[in-house]
Amino acid sequence: MIIKPEDSLCIVEIDEKGEKSAEILVKTLSMTGTKRQTITTDNLRQLAKDFGVTLPKKFL
Prior knowledge:
60 residues; mainly alpha; 0% strand
């Protein structure tokens, strides 16, 4: 199986080596430097409100 960093969705077949394969996948994807998930400031504020927490302004 070839996993390219630009793939937005990677499906890994789970077998007896599945756990090790998943570990390698996570490490490989974490080294690409590409952001896979982002959140806007407004979305972060709404999420904090929904969970009843106060965000320090230095995080925004």
